[in-house]
Specification:
The chain is mainly α. It is built from four helices and no strands. It is elongated and about 65 Å long.
Length: 94
């Protein structure tokens, strides 16, 4: 009984890993196509989304940098590292 349960568990794990691998491959393919479309329309896919006036206003005050990052994340759905990089790039370019 124990060996049967163990073999079923291993089988489920293998199926899950294979499905995950297929999913990540599909996501990479979608990202490549999206980047190609962006480049075709003159948008650099390596650059982040533009900063809104609200984010720029917050980022102009060094004491409100964290708040600017938070607002950028709320507006764009970006991750923490991407938002921090975008806000710091704006601050350093001034």
């Amino acid at each position: 009984m124990e060996w049967g349960l163990l073999s079923v568990s291993i089988g489920i794990l293998l199926v899950t890993l294979i499905a995950y691998g297929n999913l990540t491959a599909r996501i990479r393919g979608i990202e490549r196509k999206l980047n190609a479309l962006l480049r075709h329309h003159g948008v650099d896919p390596t650059q982040g989304l533009p900063l809104s006036d609200r984010v720029k206003q917050l980022a102009a005050d060094p004491a409100r940098k964290i708040e600017a990052i938070k607002v950028y994340r709320e507006e764009t759905g970006a991750g923490l590292a991407e938002a921090k990089e975008a806000v710091e790039l704006f601050i350093n370019s001034r």
